[in-house]
Specification:
It is a single chain. By secondary structure, the protein is of the alpha+beta class. Helices cover 50% and strands 8% of the residues. The chain folds into two domains: 100 residues, no CATH class; 226 residues, no CATH class. Helix 7 packs across helix 11 and helix 11 packs antiparallel against helix 12. 19% of the residues are buried.
């Protein structure tokens, strides 16, 4: 879906929400304040000019001895309704959804085929974080993936270049294939078709592939305008014992020649919303779409120079993941 199509859909949804709220807002325009109930409304507009009658010839289902005049019944109803709110939680929910759509639309979106795939920085997250990130940026945290690596400080993790994205996802699959069922992080369990997480057995490879597919399709990618010194430090990318033996200049040279697949952001540092651009492909904007595009492009380029097998070997877990999905879809197609 193109950026223009997404903006058009969001605009249509916003228009519908605004129509629903127009009635309530018209009271603000007319009176300068939004009345919250009938009692406040009556103070603003005065008492309604409605004539009441004492006749009791209006049909009801009450027995004759329990029927009351229309005027008395009307007063009772009005008294009971006088404190009834004119708006409810639905309007607040609509406002929240409208704000969320506006914030999501405010982030620029770019097709990954048109950006620098060698030196750009990237970050992935679940799609349901998009609204919050649009408001607050990327906040440092110790998530499930960081806990697997025993990270002790809250950071924003980045990857550099298209190869960095591929290496991270390859590493993700590799790490999950080594896990015992009981060690699957809590936030990832929703993607696994497993009922008992107390098992000490290693996770079945196919279950990992199925779960990673669901997870990747639940994620989106940002291109991040990150700067060394401001958003990350070169010395943080290496083990402290290792970095003590090299000068900062030497570490920077190694960093440029062999970029780490995980770029550790500065501890407790937030990346601002204006530094972020959403990524998409012609097929979609999920992390699955992004990684699929990058891996196929890498394979095509490697094939031209006779290094296709080397690329598959280096990224064996990711390659097995895509091969599994391809053969699974073929099997399903043959059954039907």
């Amino acid at each position: 879906m193109s950026k223009n199509e997404i903006i058009k859909i969001n605009s249509e949804m916003l228009n519908k929400m605004q129509v629903l709220r127009r009635g309530a807002r018209s009271n603000v325009y007319k009176f300068g304040v939004a009345p919250q109930n009938l009692k406040q409304m009556s103070k603003l507009v005065g008492k309604p000019e409605i004539e009441t009658t004492n006749d009791t010839n209006i049909p009801t289902f009450l027995p004759p001895n329990q029927q009351v005049s229309t005027s008395i019944l009307g007063k009772q109803v009005l008294e009971e309704m006088s404190n009834t709110p004119l708006t409810d939680e639905t309007e607040n929910e609509i406002e929240s959804q409208e704000l969320e759509l506006q914030q999501q639309s405010s982030l620029e979106q770019v097709d990954i085929s048109g950006i620098d795939l060698n030196s750009s920085y990237f970050h992935f997250t679940r799609r349901d974080n998009l609204g919050r990130i649009s408001r607050e940026g990327l906040k440092p945290q110790i998530g499930g993936a960081s806990k697997m690596k025993n990270e002790e400080q809250s950071r924003v993790y980045l990857s550099r270049g298209g190869k960095g994205i591929i290496e991270i996802k390859n590493s993700f699959i590799h790490e999950f294939k080594k896990l015992k069922v009981c060690d699957i992080p809590e936030e990832y369990r929703r993607y696994f078709d497993i009922k008992d997480y107390s098992s000490q057995e290693q996770v079945d490879e196919k279950k990992v592939y199925d779960a990673m597919e669901k997870r990747f399709k639940d994620e989106i990618y940002f291109q991040v305008n990150a700067k060394e010194g401001e958003d990350f430090l070169i010395e943080d990318q290496y083990d402290s014992v290792f970095s003590e033996d090299f000068s900062k200049e030497s570490l920077k040279e190694m960093f440029e020649q062999h970029p780490e697949r995980d770029i550790k952001g500065k501890a407790n540092h937030t990346i601002r919303p204006e530094q972020l651009t959403r990524l998409s492909t012609q097929k979609g904007d999920t992390a699955f779409d992004i990684v699929n595009y990058l891996y196929n492009r890498l394979l095509e380029n490697a094939k031209k120079v006779g290094k296709e097998d080397s690329v598959k070997l280096v990224n064996s877990d990711l390659n097995s993941f895509f091969e599994y999905i391809k053969h699974r879809e073929i099997d399903v197609g043959e059954r039907f």
